[in-house]
Design a protein that fits this description.
The complex is a heterotrimer of chains A (358), B (257) and C (288). With 257 residues, chain B is α/β, with parallel strands linked by helices. Chain B has nine helices and ten strands. Chain C contains twelve helices and two strands. Classes of the chains: A mainly alpha (358), B alpha/beta (257), C mainly alpha (288).
Chain lengths: 358, 257, 288
């Protein structure tokens, strides 16, 4: 069994609970830095997508997992970030390094403008309005051809510093993961300060939060703004990675895949966002790889990936609603408290009365 | 109005559709007092608390805190005026730990901006530590040490009520509104509550307005009492006077046949 | 031309209304937002297609067969997907229905293929002439069936014991359970009824928009319809659906391309901004 000895307040607040955790994370960072050297390009390309998804997933988790405002339209913010960066770098010839934060900012501004009226709505209505927002933005991308090239798509370049261009996936990888590490630290910081706690308070009880002095409208908008900013940034990274974007990259299914990331990974946790992003990025590859082992009649199907996707979503909800991170915690708990494992520690408290307001 | 008056309610009325929940209520609570609000269910006691803490918008009347009318105040600004409360049905943040719940009581005192929170440097760190010290004092006061890092979901009902009380106390309010603090508590826990209320009054100098059904508790710790029925004030005075008032007895027990 | 578009709008609106009704039925009793309603519509239509085209059955025999199969299908879905999730957070249940929708869509594609299909409904093909306007029978049948459906449902919910018990369940499942109402049975029946209603919508839609595994997306427009009418209100769902259908149709004529597709969502946003309760909804405040 592991014991915690609390000797000063800093221990409560710091990032790593035990010294050993800090060691493990340092090892992880080392591995991340060495990956391009150790792995083939195929895997590095995949890791690039993983990194991009991690940032988007962290963004969505802040709004939906922590603050409890579920958004079905985050692909729209992802797309706004992607197209902003594309237009800024290609049409307006700005440098990538300027365009990246600006794309985040543009997405954040749109997010706040939409969010201000929308966040007055109760959970379900808010979710539906974000879905509508997603459809509308998708259509705008298609129709505003002078700006976005409509259905023909938009060609984008890789960034460069001076004469060095980040044209290989390996080099781009470093940009992506540098940002992933920074964004992760930012999110961990937000969550151990009053701002983060306020977000969670809003999720758990709006009335109590207000009675604690939390201005609901201001904080919900803050959450939306921060979430939109980082989702926009990840969209920009996506655009410059894929080198080509079109409206089909930002439809309802993409919004849903973001939600799947945080659900399967674990809502309301940074680890959850990471696990979920890895899962969703890697799933199509796993399905392709396993096609050799299943009967042809199923493997040949075009819709196999989607079917598996839906099935996995259902299975996770049924058997592991806390997500991959939840399962990880349960396993860790088992080993930490061995042999005094308490099976019901993670048992969910269920509510049987009507929760939603009309 | 004299300097002793902390809370003055004048002619407060509110209706929900056709139901008049509060009918021209007049009430005053003095500094340092422990004042009970009693009355049968549906009398409007919780509604009154909700009007004071601005969760409801009363239709007419005034609520004056230290002489200043707070009727137009937005709900989230009530704390900054020094009013803290607990809820009848426990509105805790169920997925957070006891510690985090009470830490939220410190929220309105934060002086850091979002930006400095993101970087978590100097000022933010110092503030976090300061908040945690304050929370530890409350945890000591209410004997919550054993539950500090447990999620509210896993904590017994009596402890949840204490956590809510702690969350209100850490705000260092001038006026504390307690909505049925002893409901669901057994005799031992109710006695603990009685001691704590006395301590809160003496050590922290906080004025308390509580809604209660437990008459023994009311007679034990309260200085004044007001009885409500059907949204109107029936009687006000010392607890003994009010409890023995025939109108009040009638409202609870009904007429003699 | 205008009247023609109006009729088209009415017909599409009736379909939206039908999907919205099925959707609201489930929401009213179980607080579940069923994102798979459109997919149920698609599956129902496919079953009828199979009966008519593969099994060479007459439409009028295929219809009741479809309804029975869909009723069973709806109950099964409720039993294995939704029942285990009773009491979970609303978001989780929504994601479950989304997962179901994705799965049904791809499963349908795998079973029936990705082409567009059609079948002849039992109504004759000959268009009806009313003065100078030509109405297709498919449009008339849609409107007619919708009216019959509304009447049947109204009678069911106001005159039968089951309707009242469903109302009780919608307020507080646990309490209803303690009162001896077979809550599980109510859930089962509601899903069965919803599935049948969805199937009807799909069958009526096929002659107009043809059958394809993506048909479920049209079902998403039930959301603006339900919100416009007032979430949880069946008459609201109907009126909401008709308004959306007609507005969409007129938008397609008088506004730019692309507006038609998103007009429903624009209406949704406007409604949510001005009067989120919709036409018939009520505003409830949480009691503390």
């Amino acid at each position: 069994m592991r014991f915690e000895m609390r000797m000063n307040y800093m221990q409560d607040v710091q990032l790593f609970k035990y010294r050993s955790t800090a060691v493990w994370y340092s090892l992880l960072i080392l591995l991340i830095l060495l990956a391009p050297v150790m792995l083939e390009t195929y895997w590095i390309s995949l890791l690039n997508m993983v990194g991009i998804y991690i940032i988007a997933s962290l963004g969505l988790n802040l709004l939906s997992g922590y603050t409890g405002q579920v958004s079905l339209g985050h692909a729209a913010l992802f797309g706004i970030g992607a197209y902003s960066s594309a237009i800024l770098t290609v049409t307006l010839k700005l440098s990538f390094w300027l365009a990246l934060p600006m794309s985040g900012l543009i997405a954040a501004i749109v997010g706040v403008v939409i969010g201000l009226p929308a966040l007055r709505l109760k959970g379900l209505y808010f979710a539906i309005s974000t879905m509508g927002f997603g459809f509308i933005v998708e259509e705008i991308i298609i129709q505003w051809e002078s700006l976005t090239n409509g259905v023909n798509g938009f060609l984008v370049n890789r960034p460069s510093i001076g004469s060095f261009e980040f044209s290989t996936d390996e080099s781009y990888y470093y940009i992506v993961f540098f940002l992933v590490i920074i964004v992760t630290i930012i999110f961990q910081n937000i969550l151990r300060t009053p701002t983060g706690r306020a977000f969670i308070a809003i999720r758990d009880s709006e009335i109590a939060a207000e009675s604690m002095g939390i201005n609901l409208a201001a904080f919900k908008t803050k959450a939306f703004g921060i979430s939109a900013f980082f989702t926009g940034v990840s969209g920009a990274l996506f655009a410059h990675f894929m080198l080509f974007i079109g409206p089909e990259n930002f439809d309802l299914m993409v919004s849903i895949s973001f939600l799947v990331m945080i659900l399967v990974g674990g809502m309301g946790s940074v680890h959850g966002s990471v696990f979920g992003a890895i899962f969703v990025a890697v799933l199509p590859e796993m399905i392709s790889l396993s096609k050799d082992y299943i009967p042809d009649i199923i493997a040949e199907q075009a819709g196999l990936e989607a079917a598996v996707y839906g099935l996995i979503l259902l299975l996770f909800i049924r058997f592991e609603p806390l997500g991959l991170y939840g399962r990880w915690l349960k396993i860790k708990f088992y080993f930490e408290h061995f042999p005094y494992y308490k099976k019901d520690t993670f048992k969910r408290v269920r509510k049987f009365y009507r929760r939603e307001m009309q | 109005m004299n300097n002793d008056e902390l809370l003055l309610i004048k002619n407060l009325s509110i209706r929900f559709g056709g139901v008049i929940a509060l009918d021209h209520i007049n009430l005053d609570v003095h500094q340092g007092e422990v004042h009970a609000l009693i009355g049968p269910n549906g009398a409007g006691k919780t509604t009154l608390l909700n009007c004071i803490s601005r969760i409801y918008n009363a239709d007419t009347g005034q609520v004056c805190l230290k002489g200043k009318d707070i009727m137009g105040l937005k709900t989230h600004l009530v704390v900054s005026k020094g009013i803290a409360r607990t809820f009848q049905n426990i509105e805790l943040f169920k997925d957070m730990t006891v510690m985090d719940n009470i830490l939220l009581g410190c929220h309105f005192k934060r002086k850091t901006s979002l930006f400095s929170d993101i970087l978590f440097w100097g000022k933010s760190r110092k503030q976090e530590i300061k908040f945690r010290k304050q929370v530890e004092n409350i945890i000591d006061f209410l004997d919550l040490q054993a539950y500090r890092n447990l999620s509210i979901n896993n904590v017994p009902y009596g402890v949840q009520k204490n956590v809510e009380l702690g969350r209100a106390l850490v705000m260092k309010p001038k006026l504390l509104l307690l909505d049925e603090p002893s409901s669901g508590l057994n005799i031992e826990e109710t006695q603990d509550l009685a001691f704590w209320i006395e301590d809160i009054k003496e050590e922290f100098g906080i004025t308390i307005l509580l809604v209660e059904h437990d008459m023994r508790l009311v007679l034990d710790v309260c200085d004044k009492a007001t009885a409500l029925d059907y949204g109107r004030v029936l009687a006000t005075g010392t607890p003994k006077e009010v409890v023995e008032n025939p109108e009040v007895v009638k409202s609870y027990l009904g007429e003699e046949e | 031309m205008f009247v023609q578009q109006l009729m088209n709008g009415f017909a599409m609106g009736s379909i939206y209304a039908i999907v919205a009704i099925g959707f609201v039925l489930i929401y009213k009793s179980t607080e579940v937002v069923n994102f798979a309603q459109g997919e149920l519509m698609m599956v129902g239509a496919f079953i009828t297609y199979t009966c008519v085209s593969y099994l060479q059955l007459s439409f009028w025999i295929a219809l009741p067969i479809t309804m029975i199969i869909m009723a069973i299908f709806g109950s099964i879905i409720e039993r294995i997907v939704l029942r285990p999730l009773v009491g979970e957070a609303a978001f989780v249940i929504v994601m479950a229905t989304i997962g179901l929708a994705i799965f049904l869509r791809s499963a349908a594609g795998m079973i029936w293929g990705y082409d567009t299909y059609s079948f002849k409904t039992g109504f004759s093909d000959v268009p009806v002439q009313l003065g100078s306007y030509v109405l297709s029978t498919s449009h008339i049948s849609v409107i007619g069936v919708t009216i019959i459906l509304i009447v049947c449902l109204h009678l069911f919910f106001t005159r039968t014991k089951m309707g009242i018990s469903m109302e009780a369940v919608s307020q507080n499942q646990f309490a209803a359970f303690l009162m001896g109402i077979g809550v599980k049975k109510v859930f089962s029946r509601i899903w069965a009824i919803s599935a049948i209603v969805a199937a009807l919508g799909g069958i009526l839609l096929t002659p107009i928009q043809f059958l394809n595994y993506n048909m479920g997306f049209i079902g998403l427009k039930a959301f603006p319809a339900a919100v416009l009418g007032g979430f949880g209100s069946i008459p609201g769902a109907i009126i909401g659906g008709i308004i959306i259908g007609v507005s969409e149709s007129l938008a397609g004529v008088y506004l730019n391309d692309g507006f038609k597709d998103i007009f429903a969502w624009l209406i949704l946003i406007v409604v949510l901004l001005i009067k989120p309760e919709g036409i018939f909804g009520t505003h409830q405040q949480k009691r503390v």
